[in-house]
Amino acid sequence: MTPTPETPIILITGSTGYIGGRLAPRLVERGYRIRCLVRSEAKLRARPWAQSPSVEVVTGDIGDPAVLARAMQGCTAAYYLVHSMEASTPDYRAHDRVLAESFGRAAKDASVGRIIYLGGLGETGEGLSQHLASRREVEKALRAAGVPVTVLRAAMIIGSGSASFEILRYLVERLPIMITPRWVSTESQPIAVRDVLHYLITALETPATAGKTLDIGGPEVKSYADIMRDMAAALHLRRRVVIPVPVLTPRLSSLWIHVVTPLHASIARPLAEGLRNRVVCRSEETHALMPHRCLTIREAMDAALAKAKSGEVETAWSDAGVLPGDPVWAGGTVFTDRRETQTHASRDAVWGSVCSLGGRTGYYAADWLWRVRGAMDRLAGGPGLRRGRRSEGALRLGDALDFWRVTAIDPPNRLELRAEMKLPGVATLEFELAPRSSGAPGTTLVMTARFRPHGLLGIAYWYAVLPLHGIVFRGMLRGLTRSAEAGASART
After folding, report:
1. Is the pLDDT of residue 4 over 70?
2. What is the pLDDT of residues 72-125, one digit of tens each?
3. Per-residue confidence at 393, pLDDT binned at 50, 70, 90?
4. Angle, in degrees to the nearest 10, between helices 367-379 and 250-260
5. For the stretch 370-408, what's the b/e string if a residue is b when 16 or more beta carbons lie within 10 angstroms of its beta carbon?
6. CB of 176 within 8 A of CB of 229?
7. Residues 6+ away with beta carbon under 8 Å from 320
8. SS3 readout for 7-55
């Protein structure tokens, strides 16, 4: 269906996040015009679907009333897919509540017909985790201005790249015997991400869901221990032994998740706290209003693993990371390590090799040093190398790549990565590709590492690692060149 000027405009917040990044292209496919409120337009435009003429972009802070008013003008409905996941900010509940209240008022002022919000399942009343309690507060805050709100409450979402799925997969892959908190006996009703997207879209198209709070879940209710065993079966691993003990608190559990999985402790903490709450659908109203067959837990896992294996992961839990602008290198001390090499391979071939860095490919030289650095970073509270990458062969603006993030990309000319590892300073790694200056066929590849130290500790860090640059960066350049030339030879 081709949109017309009369086609409804749907506002989406969180469109560069895990759910929003999948919902937006599906709405476009169904013929809607969508307007995305984002902090970084460049990050959004890196998504192929964002090039559609049906996509409008409003850039700004969701907490700015003027920005909200501009974003909501002319919209018939709005998806609120924004929620803090990091427990490192003590007042995150209050912050989320204020944002939701502001969003509801702006929707009322702009005569938006309804708001659709994806919240969390959980028993009502006392005893909710901070994370789930915050979700309830957001629901109330969105409704406060009087705009009809459809709340969809989901438990664990199983899909390629989701935080819950990654925790499960890494724990099961790495630990044949798991010492776990007592919460492994808690019941949950997981749902596949494709079913969540179905309900989000169908709710928009079903007027009777306006003003409703609807539980959404798959067809099975299982304990987390049984879900872990399902994951082992999906991964074709031996049955995992799960030993629950009473001494593991949510804080200790989140630290353990931080060490074993790609998720940072600050993100794992609210998830771990929420695991103590039974998260099961309490009503069948969803099925009455929106009949649909949801995938079983095993079907959802198999679909997610197939996507991950084929490199077709649309979005990942790490997509929502803050994308900083290019650092201001003017002023202060900035250390630079610039290296250059020439190759007879084409620029496209070299670009392909550069874009395959990290993840399973590694860094072409001294990978053991990178693994050691990643392990040190995990122990220091950083992301380490375990985040991997969304796709093995393609990068886009905002992608996480191990402990880097793509902060600039101009295929096939320039790629910039900014370090998100724990550092006493700001580090970037830049690759620039150009024709050979001699005019001969081939490519010049320039790699520049920059580091802006924070204080004397930062300066000391730079000089401590400088001797390793000769091993790591020189070897990386050689490896990139070999990879590009081998690829070029294979194609001829």
Report:
1. no
2. 999 999 999 987 655 445 577 888 899 999 999 999 999 999 999 999 886 555
3. confident
4. 170
5. beebbeebbeeebbbbbbbbbbbeebbbbbbbbbbbbbb
6. no
7. 14, 16, 17, 18, 85
8. CCEEEEECCCCCCHHHHHHHHHHCCCEEEEEECCHHHHHCCHHHHCCCE
Q: Which two tokens stand for residue 113?
A: 């017909």
Tell me which residue of 299, 277, 298 sits closest to 185, measured CA to CA.
277
Report the DSSP beta bridge partners of residue 401. Answer: 389, 404
Q: How far apart are CA 334 and CA 451, in angstroms?
A: 6
Say if CB 387 and CB 261 are below 8 A apart: no
List, for residues 349-360, the tens digit of each pLDDT value: 999 999 999 998
Residue ranges with strand state E in 236-326: 241-244
Q: For the chain, which domains are there?
A: 61-311 (3.40.50.720), 328-491 (3.30.530.20)
DSSP readout, 176-201? SEEEE-GGGGSEE--EEHHHHHHHHH
Write down the pLDDT at residue 245. 76
Cα of 291 vs its chain's centroid, Å: 30
pLDDT band with cut points at 50, 70 and 90 for residue 385: confident
Measure CA of the first residue to CA of the last residue in the chain; give whole Å: 43
Q: What pLDDT score was predicted for residue 74?
A: 95
What are the strands of the beta sheet with 9-13, ordered from one edge?
55-59, 33-38, 9-13, 75-80, 114-120, 149-154, 213-216
Q: Which two tokens stand for residue 82?
A: 């924004």
Helix (H) or strand (E) holding 424: none
Helix (H) or strand (E) holding 303: helix 297-310
Radius of gyration of the chain (CA): 24
Q: How far does Cα 65 stand from its chain's mean position?
A: 26
Question: What average pLDDT does this structure show over 207-228?
Answer: 94
Helix, strand or coil for residue 425?
A: strand
Q: Quick one: pLDDT at residue 453?
A: 82
In contact, 312 and 304? CB cutoff 8 Å: no
DSSP E strand boundaries for 230-355 = 241-244, 335-343
Q: Distance between CA atoms of 323 and 328, rounded to whole angstroms?
A: 14
Separation of alpha carbons 387 and 401, rounded Å: 7
pLDDT computed for residue 380 by the predictor: 86
Q: Tell me how far CA of residue 369 lies from CA of 162, 372, 477, in angstroms.
A: 29, 5, 16
Token code pair at residue 249: 């608190």
Written as one letter, the residue type at 127 is: G
Structure token pair of residue 261: 């999985």
Q: In the sheet that 400-401 helps form, which strands lie side by side, from edge to edge?
A: 335-343, 443-453, 425-435, 414-419, 404-410, 400-401
In this prediction, what percent of the chain has a pLDDT beyond 70? 85
